[in-house]
Amino acid sequence: MSHNKPAESELEFADHYDFDLPKELIAQDPVRNREDARLLSVNRSTNSIEHFHVRDLPELLVPGDCLVLNNTKVIPAKLVGYRTQTGGRWSGLFLEADGQGNWKMLCKTRGRIKEGESVTLQDCNGVERTTLTLLTRLDGGEWVGRPEMEGTTDEILDLVGRVPLPHYIRDGNMVDSDRADYQTVYAKEIGAVAAPTAGLHFTKSLVRKLIDDGINLAQVTLHIGIGTFRPMTTELLGDHEMHSEWGSISEASAKLINKSRAAGGRIIAVGTTSVRVLETAGSQGTIEPWSGDTSLFIKPPYDFKIVDGLLTNFHLPRSTLLVLVRTFGGDELMQRVYCEAIEEKYRFFSYGDAMLIL
Prior knowledge:
Elements: E1 38-43, E2 48-53, H1 57-60, E3 66-70, E4 72-74, E5 78-83, E6 89-97, E7 103-109, E8 118-122, E9 128-137, E10 142-147, H2 153-160, H3 178-181, E11 189-192, H4 204-212, E12 216-222, E13 245-249, H5 251-262, E14 267-270, H6 272-281, E15 290-294, E16 309-313, H7 320-329, H8 331-343, E17 354-357
Parallel strand pairs: 1-17, 3-12, 3-14, 4-11, 14-16
Antiparallel strand pairs: 1-2, 5-6, 5-8, 6-7, 7-10, 8-9, 9-10, 12-13, 13-15, 16-17
Helix pairs in contact: 7-8
């Protein structure tokens, strides 16, 4: 990354958000105690950078500030098995259920699957649990299928599903500890196929300490979809088709956020997903209770209406998440931050360290 101030037009190009990252800085596991992750603190008004740990968060915030947490819960959405007739390997990713017992999924196998074909699903230990009939081929590698097993979608996925780790963590291969590690301690609303990773740093004791210190905690929901990992392949940001995700803000959360703002507290989003919910629901300048789909792509120039601060992990090159962070933190300053993080050997991506931008 260069330290030169970018021309306004440069910010429109996806290449501007590319950078080289040493492979050894991609975290393969979280730190043993979540709040011991490192925290790079960025002050936008002084352009200064300081180094802390996530456990220092209560000292970096002031009473009356409001942290906004995404309480989505990750589904064990990764499916593994074989084509029942041929024995060929098959893998899938559960996307959603329709209420009638049909699943929408992404499928991957060698050769061409035919409609009506059956797949045998195996659990984490390789035990055959049920079969899945592939009913209808959709666009983009998606299928509608139906598991033969009795039970709710959640019950079946708990039995046969695996944690849908991103490919850069152990090639997507889960270990038992990922079931807890790849979930926030406050996860509640089932529906995500990726974790809101900034929230992975919180422990129950850190949450208690923040509340005891007078920090308000508001919860929102954004069910993170697989599109969050999709890099921008277009030359211009404006040509990138942003993925859509379902989110909501309750009346209680909207009230708490507005009350905190009115009293002079800062609204600090925990994760880029919380930013997208807040800025979607607060497009008129105040937060209203809201639920629906958002495909908000925050890119320069963007005027933030609600968010005053952001706690976030270090993101992938050419990702819409990186564009959001650099738009919020200031392009030049954020380039400096990423250079320093690489120099200081911060851990990157989902299981990595965090930064706080105020």
